[in-house]
């Protein structure tokens, strides 16, 4: 029988449940939020291959966190986040080794691209994000 890898957090059941946070030198759950009180989880930002996660650097981590916080601000403008039972976010790509975590491609279930772009424009002075539509329903957001 294969030996179970050493896990660092008490609620982790496998290696994919946790990652090392280089900004605070501690372990975090991948199912914890990347922005306070949001539906954006760390597993959304990390690549599917967990063997790449140790390549996450402090600056990447902080950019991911900042982008998640700004996307959450837009979600608050759209409204309805507190009535949800599941995350409305679907991420196609975010951080990869060699990238910086400051850009992601996503869409939101039950929110049209036009509605998201309008909400982003309303608070663009606060978020300082560059938000562009891609092939419907996908949207790219980049830290400005």
Protein topology:
Layout: E1 18-21, E2 26-29, H1 42-45, H2 58-78, E3 89-93, E4 103-108, H3 113-122, H4 124-127, E5 129-133, E6 139-143
Antiparallel strand pairs: 1-2, 3-4, 4-6, 5-6
Helix pairs in contact: 2-3
Radius of gyration: 16 Å
- Overall morphology: globular
Low-confidence stretches: none
Mean pLDDT: 93
Largest sheet: 4 strands, antiparallel
Determine the fraction of residues in helical runs and give it as a percent range: 25-40%
Main sheet strand line-up: 3-4-6-5
Report the order of strands and helices.
EEHHEEHHEE
Q: Structural class of the secondary structure composition?
A: alpha+beta
Which strand-content bin applies to the residues? Answer: 15-25%
Q: How many individual helices?
A: 4
Descriptive tags:
20% strand, globular, four-stranded antiparallel beta sheet, 4 helices, 144 residues, alpha+beta, two-stranded antiparallel ribbon, 6 strands
Can you characterise this structure?
The chain starts with 17 loop residues before the first strand and ends with a strand. With 144 residues, it is α+β, with helices and mostly antiparallel strands. A four-stranded antiparallel β-sheet has the order 3-4-6-5. The protein has a two-stranded antiparallel ribbon with strand order 1-2. β1 (18-21) and β2 (26-29) form a beta hairpin. α2 (58-78) packs across α3 (113-122). The chain has one domain (15-143). Helices cover 27% and strands 20% of the residues.
